[in-house]
Design brief:
Number of helices: 7
Strand order of the largest sheet: 1-2
Number of strands: 4
Mean pLDDT: 80
Structural class: mainly alpha
Helix content: 55-70%
Distance between the termini: 37 Å
Largest sheet: 2 strands, antiparallel
Order of helices and strands: HEEHHEHHHEH
Length: 189
């Protein structure tokens, strides 16, 4: 588990140049986003294997993670990035709130892992911002079930973040900044 955290951190750090993250490698090599999606599925699976179901005493606010492709395609990359930043900020806050309420060691361990992953993406996307980012996010739902937090993170990666990386790849990878491009993710055509 410690090795996985170190590998994730190393992967993110490899994309940083002179204090600013370079999205080219990350978005041009779709194996990375698929790796993170696989890790999100693994976290959800391990959390659902915990002995007792986890129910929070106070609900946490989760981001709206569904993607409406017709609307998504009309947004600028800047708008998409800000939307994902809001979603990640809400998700990190939800995980933080769930961690403070969780007494079961199994659930708490997976929530800590989820927090590190979501926080890493949030920090990474903030470094790509040209302007200071001020969160003004609206929640999609309130949730008492801890397992739903893991599902929301997984769906955020599989949907908005993967599609956003695909859109960035159109700009960055075709200009030779990140090597060759992989085929578009399913659901974009």
């Amino acid at each position: 588990m410690e090795l996985n955290r170190l590998l994730l951190l190393t992967s993110f750090l490899l994309h940083i140049k002179e204090g600013r993250a370079s999205p080219a490698r990350l978005v041009c090599d779709t194996r990375l986003i698929h790796k993170y999606i696989g890790e999100a599925k693994d976290m959800e699976k391990k959390a659902n294997q915990c002995q007792a179901p986890s129910a929070l005493s106070c609900p946490v606010a989760l981001p709206p993670v569904d993607v409406k492709m017709t609307q998504w395609k009309t947004k600028s990359n800047q708008s998409k990035r800000r939307e994902i930043l809001c979603d990640l900020a809400l998700l990190v806050g939800a995980v933080r709130g769930a961690r403070s309420q969780e007494s079961q060691e199994c659930w708490a361990g997976q929530l800590n892992r989820l927090y590190r992953h979501a926080e890493a993406f949030l920090v990474l996307l903030k470094t790509w911002e040209e302007e200071p980012w001020e969160p003004g996010c609206s929640a999609g739902s309130k949730e008492l079930n801890t397992a739903v937090i893991f599902l929301a993170y997984q769906r955020l990666l599989q949907g908005k973040l993967r599609f956003f990386f695909h859109d960035l790849a159109k700009e960055l990878c075709d200009r030779g900044q990140g090597g060759g491009r992989d085929p578009p993710p399913r659901g974009l055509n």
